[in-house]
Amino acid sequence: MISRPGRRSVLSLALTPWLLASKRVPFGQTDLFRQGDAGVHTYRIPALIEARRGTLIAVADARHDGGGDLPARISLVMRRSQDRGRTWSAMRTLRAVDAGGVGDASLLLDHNTGRIWCFHAYGPPGIGFNTAKPGAISGPDTLQVHAIHSDDEGATWSAPLDLTPQLKDPAWAAIFATSGTHFQTSRGRYVVPLVVRDASRAVAARNACSDDAGKTWKVGPVICPESDESKALEIAGGVIIQNMRGNGQTRILARSSDGGVTFGKPERPVELVDPGCNAGFARYRHGGKDLLLSTNAAATKRRNLTLKLSTDGRAWSKGHVIHEGPAAYSTVLPLRDGSIAMLYECGETQSTERITFARFELNGTEERPR
To answer: Do the beta carbons of residue 346 and residue 325 sit within 8 Å?
Structure first.
């Protein structure tokens, strides 16, 4: 279904006058990972979470020898903030392997226990999303989905757990969890979006769901053909909206009434222009209303990182440019104090020059830097 462009201005004027105040969002920002830091060639793939007592945890790929994906030599690094992003700890390695690589981290907070999960891909030597083959459900010939967890706000982490045998159909060539920020539904279900390459090499988004705090997992059917990395959120009534990377023209949205397992007909809002890139998606309570936040490279190429708002996921505001230059992956996270945090890839000549943290407020007709 194509959204009607005519609804866009009504939404902006009625609910989000702050978007019309200026052409840029004024906010405080900090570069957390930069090309060349600690001798690493490139940092990519931002993941962000706020722990139950307020600690912010930022995780990224440390791509040691170049900017490429697995099976390159990649480790996971992290930084923490205990003052909502004003200052950050020194970077430290979250996980590294002796052979192969790990990457594409995503973070999820269990609101009941405070446990933080970090899902990520492990590629044995020579194995990445494009080189893995059907047949194995784990082992040295397939890309694997691993998870670690922390019960002390990211200070220490568990040993890795291989979830691949629970998630991967042996007919599929490859599977990984979408990077960024994921969530737990109001009924306690973990929803972790996946990307699957099937035996025919077709790529599509699915969800992995756990109803027992990560002990066991089930994978749902394809959400939409020709989809890719995605984020999900829950709106009133328990409806799950999935926001998916599409074919390089617009984002793809779909809705589920059974907790993120099966979905209805996909929608392609014309306002959500997208070059084919992972994006941020979150639900934000503001002024007594629910707003949906979308952050993505809103152009035909990976640039022009933009924040857009919606009340229903169908009509979207014109948007506010966060970074006009090259930009790529992002994640967005409402914080407990009412501010909004973002972590995103950006640069002046290429989108992979740095990963930047930003925090700001929606306050009537302006955003106040924090």
So the answer is: yes
Measured between alpha carbons, how far is 160 from 95 in angstroms, rounded to an integer? 9
Look up the pTM and report it. 0.92
Task: Go through the domains of the chain in sequence order and give each one's CATH number.
Answer: 7-360 (2.120.10.10)
The Cα–Cα gap between 346 and 304 comes to: 9
Of residues 271, 244, 270, the one with CA closest to residue 255: 244
Two structure tokens written together for 8: 């866009």
- Which residue, 64, 88, 65, 92, is CA-closest to 78? 92
C-alpha span between 33 and 40 (Å, rounded): 10
**pLDDT beyond 50 at 101:** yes
Burial letters 312-329, b for 16+ CB under 10 A, else e:
ebbbbbebbebbeebbbb
241/248 Cα distance (integer angstroms): 20
User: How far is 255 from 266, CA to CA, in rounded Å?
Assistant: 8
